[in-house]
Amino acid sequence: MTARNNAILILPLLCLLAGLSACAAIQPERSIGRELDDTNASLSIKSAMLRVEGFALDGIDVEVTEGIALLTGRVPREDDRLMAECLAWSSVAVRSVANEIEVGPTNGFRDRANDAWITQRVRGRLLSDRNVRSVNFNVETYAGKVYLLGVARSRGELERVSAQAALVGGVVEVISYVRIAGEPSDLPSRGERRAAACAGESMPGLDSDGSLPNSSPQLLGAAEGSR
To answer: Are 73 and 106 in contact (CB under 8 A)?
Structure first.
């Protein structure tokens, strides 16, 4: 069981022991509802990529955190990279797409193992740093680049997290898609960005209304309710 899961499980007990005011002080900025929406969004996007025909999207990794869909991996053509970004908008829970996909041959086993090692080292440093609420952050690594997602309590905490990641051996760059709690977002409307990504064309594998075929009403409802 992960440290985040442990934190979620003990929160109700801490609330009973310490009272509501103390509970509010330790409650992670990332809500359980938002996390469920992110998980559903990630699964639906991966499903859409598996169903689409004529594009090589099997080498793409999808991670959705706080409504930001991070796409990493390598594809053989630019058309594949663009289609992956278009399909990332297939979930109503996605509010932004970070397309970090590269065009070229896929990485070998050694490169993937090194990325996994870097990710674990970064997560370990965040977990041991008492000035960082590690449960609010998601760490992904591809080709030595560390991607940070989640919610920071302050800009200072984000800078600390970035610095911790940069100290791990093998890291070539730290890229942040972290939202800072309390700061307004200046993102353009979802519809505008989705239309730009898909160049006005319908997305393969989706129904005429832009939703996923056979999508669970409960999953889509949960996503809409969180926005």
So the answer is: yes
Domain count, the chain: 2
pLDDT for res 3: 46
Q: What is the CATH number of the domain that holds 129?
A: 3.30.1340.30
Distance of CA 128 to the CA centre of its chain: 22
**Residue 2 included in any domain:** no
Provide block-wise average pLDDT over 10 residues at a time, the chain (227 residues).
46 44 49 89 95 93 96 96 94 94 91 97 98 96 97 97 98 96 81 80 46 38 38
User: Do 62 and 39 have their domain in common?
Assistant: yes
| Structural domain for 217, as ranges | 32-106+206-226
> Among 85, 86, 90, which Cα is nearest to 101's?
85
Q: What are phi and psi of 24, to 5 degrees?
A: -60, -30
Which region, left, alpha or beta, applies to residue 139 given φ > 0 means left and ψ of -120 to 50 means alpha?
Answer: beta
Which stretch of DSSP H or E encloses residue 220?
A: helix 217-226
In a domain, 6, yes or no: no
Tokens read off for 123: 């997560």
State how far the Cα of 203 lies from the Cα of 3, in Å rounded to an integer.
Answer: 38
